[in-house]
Specification:
- This protein is globular.
- The chain has about 170 residues and is α/β, with parallel strands linked by helices.
- It has a single domain (about 5-160), classed as P-loop containing nucleotide triphosphate hydrolases (Rossmann fold, 3-Layer(aba) Sandwich), CATH 3.40.50.300.
- It has a 5-stranded parallel sheet with strand order 2-3-1-4-5, sandwiched between helices.
- The chain has 9 helices and 5 strands, in the order βαβαααβαβαααβα.
- The structure holds shikimate-3-phosphate (S3P).
Length: about 170
């Protein structure tokens, strides 16, 4: 099994889909933000505050090198900016979870943990800046994707089913 590498904007549901894939397949999953937090023993928010974004992006680069060399048969979910690493396509089949910005935001706000979801993501603290980032990134996500899943108005289960079907076809 080739790795699956899940990309997409903050809050689109990469983590939820990853957990559902694990339940319904033989993939195990890891998450680049979780790897960074455990390596640094501090939260992403703290890393941004204490070291700045450039430092965080360096950590993502280091992780991308390790993923390419050492990780197999795994579903890798990524932070929203991870896609910028140079070797993304070499890590695995790139799956982009797509949704309009307004839907993503609605989804976060409707979540029971909305406050903490927003608080832990420094780049979502300013709505108009976040929208600009979304508009800049979406074409880049699309250009890199081997598979696109439009998650709008679909349950996590539906998205997962579609993902596994498309991955099997792509293999
Ligand atoms: C970021 C997304 C976050 C996290 C960091 C930066 C981004 O991950 O990596 O706050 O640049 O979009 P999620 O996409 O899991 O929120």
């Amino acid at each position: 099994m080739k790795n699956i590498i899940l990309i997409g904007f903050m809050g689109v549901g990469k983590g939820s889909v990853a957990r559902e894939v694990v339940k319904n397949s033989r993939y195990v999953a890891i998450d680049t933000d979780d790897l960074i937090e455990s390596m640094e023993n501090r939260k992403i928010k703290k890393i941004f505050e204490q070291e700045g974004e450039a430092y965080f992006r360096e950590l993502e680069k280091n992780i991308s090198v390790w993923l390419e060399k050492s990780v197999k048969n795994t579903l890798i979910s990524t932070g929203g900016g991870f896609y910028k690493v140079k070797n993304l396509k070499k890590i695995g089949t790139v799956v982009f979870l797509d949704s309009p910005f307004e839907e993503i935001f609605k989804r976060i706000e409707d979540h029971p943990n909305a406050k903490s979801k927003l608080k832990k993501r420094p780049l979502l603290s300013n709505l108009s800046e976040a929208k600009k980032l979304y508009d800049m990134r979406r074409p880049e996500y699309l250009a890199l994707a081997d598979i696109v899943i439009d998650v709008t108005n679909k349950s996590v289960q539906e998205c997962t089913k579609e993902l596994l079907k498309k991955v099997a076809k792509n293999a």
